[in-house]
Design a protein that fits this description.
There is one protein chain. The chain has one domain: Mog1/PsbP, alpha/beta/alpha sandwich (Protein Transport Mog1p, Chain A, 3-Layer(aba) Sandwich), CATH 3.40.1000.10. Helices cover 18% and strands 45% of the residues. It has 2 helices and 10 strands, in the order βββββαββββαβ. Strands 3-4-5-9-8-7-6 form a 7-stranded antiparallel sheet, covered by helices on one side. It has a 3-stranded antiparallel sheet with strand order 1-2-10. Strand 8 and strand 9 form a beta hairpin. The protein is globular and about 40 Å long. The mean pLDDT is 90.
């Protein structure tokens, strides 16, 4: 598990994780994850802004604590995940070639992104 400020996530053991823990990538670079956290006092407004910026995205989850959308750009598929932790939101951007990641790995990575209580 890696932690960036108040955001934590888990990736497969074979992935490289940056020293500041803000990104991780497969060894061959075919898939990568960027993670960052930010202060947010209004989850609904934050969530609505993200949805407005990605009107064609497929919504995998939209709840009071998590927004997970998917889209594609050329040969790459991206997952954009927001996790609501009250006054803090963690964002994860997972990008990969169409065949680079199996769906269970995508689900595993996305499901582990969370706001960490430790700082």
């Amino acid at each position: 598990m890696s932690t960036d400020e108040r955001c934590s996530y888990s990736v497969p053991e074979s992935w490289r994780v940056s020293a500041d823990r803000r990104w991780a990538a497969q060894e061959d670079g075919a898939a990568s994850l960027g993670v960052f956290g930010m202060s947010s006092t209004n989850w609904s407004s934050h969530r609505n802004a993200v949805m407005a910026g990605a009107p064609t995205a497929v919504v995998h989850e939209d709840s009071a604590t998590r927004l997970w959308i998917e889209g594609s750009a050329g040969a790459r598929v991206w997952q954009h995940v927001l996790v609501n932790g009250g006054n803090w939101v963690c964002t994860g951007d997972l990008a990969a070639g169409h065949q680079a990641l199996r769906w269970p790995v995508v689900q595993q990575i996305v499901s582990t992104l969370r706001v960490s209580l430790e700082r």
